[in-house]
Amino acid sequence: QVQLVESGGGLVQAGGSLRLSCAASGRTFITYAMAWFRQAPGKEREFVARITWSHAQTYYADSVKGRFTISRDNAKNTVSLQMNSLKPEDTAVYYCAAQASYSGGDYYTERMYSYWGQGTQVTVSS
User: Fold this and answer.
1) Under 8 Å CB-to-CB from 60, ≥6 apart: which residues?
2) What DSSP assignment string belongs to 31-67?
3) Three-class SS of residue 111?
4) How far is CA 52 from the centre of its chain?
5) Could you read off the pLDDT tens digit of each residue along the chain, which spans 126 residues?
6) Rounded to whole angstroms, how far apart are CA atoms 35 and 66?
7) Residue 123 and residue 92: Cα distance in Å, rounded?
8) What's the CA dihedral at 50, 56, 62, 64 to 10 degrees?
9) Could you tell me which of 83, 117, 80, 96 has the C-alpha nearest to residue 35?
10) Angle 43-19-108 (CA atoms, 0-180°, nearest 5)?
11) How far apart are CA 115 and CA 58, in angstroms?
């Protein structure tokens, strides 16, 4: 089992920045990749960014490319999401997710990830 705990959410004005962190505990050696998803009110949860644990390959949704940066610290078992130039449409609950092992399929789909955090609220005011 892997436990994930997010932190760093909050209220920020448009154009501002926030940094989210996700601390992984438990059997973290079985983690292949980690990702961030988000869910805005009345919308489905959507992929934001992903990083593979061993080679730090990164992937981003088009909507955040160039503004968000995902990174990981293997020693601390944490993954972070640096969010710059925030827009009101970035307002959502942000979730950290972990993929336990390699498998074929689309990395941006929820079913690829076995473990989820409880989410942290990000609100961007205009």
Assistant:
1) 48, 49, 50, 68, 70
2) --EEEEEEE-TTS--EEEEEEETTT--EEE-TTTTTT
3) helix
4) 12
5) 889 999 999 999 999 999 999 999 988 777 899 999 999 999 999 999 999 988 899 999 999 999 999 999 988 999 999 999 999 999 999 999 999 888 888 999 999 999 999 999 999 999
6) 17
7) 7
8) 80
9) 96
10) 45
11) 19
DSSP type of residue 23: E
Read off the tokens for 24: 């992984």
DSSP 78: E
Structure tokens at 90: 């970035």
Query: Exposed, middle or buried: residue 59 (CB in 10 Å: 0-12, 13-18, 19+)?
Result: middle
| Rg for the chain, CA atoms, rounded | 14
